[in-house]
């Protein structure tokens, strides 16, 4: 009876995992299939299977439509996501390290403020940021998107948790006894021990900035500063009004937009694997 119950549980678990995998993969499969179709096949063909292969033509239209503005959006997205995530990671690691390993008045209140602030939806802060940046003359500039990307309370808390488990206080005290300064300790010891945490913070920040939509929509006016998400949204609004039907361009552009994220996650996988292996050895 126990063997039968165990087998039944395994079947139910596998069935649930299969449904979850289907739910996750089905939209991506539909996007891949749709990006290879012409407009006619997309409207009248089977939505989940291939027709005449038209991916090359769709890619050509994506990169040439609007004088190649799509490539500019790609570069803008890499700028906002890459620079924003890099600076955010450095600030978050430093703030998390200070909250974890330094004793100072107000540390508990500061940690409570950090935890409380990342519970506030980012959309609620967009309008106050817009009013502030309007007074500073930063609206419709890259800084209007980059500066908010530099600060992430959740990343600060995540870094603090990683430092608690990955950076032994005894090692820091030994470094101080040997005469190492605080900056040297942070950059040569803490950051090396925090490789897995830094990779996690960077990836979360990069994905968040890459997929950011509401903040660029509010802050940016000229299409030469738009992100991929904002540009594809504008194409989607114009797809029935433009001389060229932009449905295929929107879908092909959406497929191209997720390729860097997939490549990036695969490339960052080795940092997580090395961190898990290091933890098992400890």
Number of strand elements = 0
Would you tell me the structural class of the helices and strands? Answer: mainly alpha
Largest sheet: none
Radius of gyration: 24 Å
Low-confidence stretches: 275-282
Strand content: under 5%
**Tell me, what's the shape?**
globular
Q: What key phrases describe this protein's structure?
A:
single chain; 14 helices; about 280 residues
Please tell me about this protein's structure:
The protein is mostly helical. The chain is built from 14 helices and no strands. The chain has helices at residues 2-35, 39-44, 55-64, 69-101, 107-117, 122-136, 143-149, 153-166, 169-177, 182-193, 195-210, 214-219, 228-238, 247-281. Helix 1 (2-35) packs across helix 14 (247-281) and helix 13 runs antiparallel to helix 14.
Provide a compact summary of the structure:
This protein is mostly helical and 282 residues long. It has 14 helices and no strands. Helix content is 78%, strand content 0%.
What's the SSE blueprint?
Elements: H1 2-35, H2 39-44, H3 55-64, H4 69-101, H5 107-117, H6 122-136, H7 143-149, H8 153-166, H9 169-177, H10 182-193, H11 195-210, H12 214-219, H13 228-238, H14 247-281
Helix pairs in contact: 1-14, 3-14, 4-7, 4-8, 4-11, 5-8, 8-11, 11-14, 13-14
């Amino acid at each position: 009876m126990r063997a039968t119950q165990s087998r039944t549980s395994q079947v139910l678990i596998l069935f649930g995992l299969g449904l979850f995998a289907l739910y996750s993969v089905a939209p991506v499969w539909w996007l891949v299939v749709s990006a290879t179709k012409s407009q006619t096949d997309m409207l009248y063909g089977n939505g989940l299977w291939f027709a005449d292969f038209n991916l090359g033509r769709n890619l050509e239209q994506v990169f040439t439509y609007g004088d190649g503005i799509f490539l500019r959006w790609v570069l803008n997205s890499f700028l906002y996501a890459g620079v924003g995530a890099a600076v955010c990671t450095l600030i978050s690691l430093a703030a998390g390290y200070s909250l974890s390993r330094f004793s100072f008045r107000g540390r508990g209140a500061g940690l409570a403020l950090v935890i409380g602030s990342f519970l506030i939806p980012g959309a609620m802060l967009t309008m106050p940021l817009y009013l502030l940046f309007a007074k500073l003359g930063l609206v419709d500039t890259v800084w209007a998107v980059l500066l908010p990307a530099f600060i992430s309370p959740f990343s600060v808390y995540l870094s603090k948790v990683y430092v608690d488990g990955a950076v032994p206080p005894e090692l820091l005290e030994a470094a101080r006894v040997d005469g190492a300064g605080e900056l040297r300790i942070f950059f040569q010891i803490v950051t090396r021990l925090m490789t897995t945490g830094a990779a996690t913070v960077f990836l979360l920040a990069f994905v968040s900035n890459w997929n950011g939509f509401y903040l660029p929509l509010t802050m940016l006016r000229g299409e030469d500063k738009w992100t991929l998400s904002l540009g594809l949204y504008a194409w989607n609004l114009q797809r029935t009004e433009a001389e060229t039907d932009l449905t295929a361009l929107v879908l092909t552009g959406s497929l191209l937009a997720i390729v860097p994220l997939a490549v990036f996650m695969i490339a960052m996988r080795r940092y997580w694997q090395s961190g898990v292996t290091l933890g098992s050895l400890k």
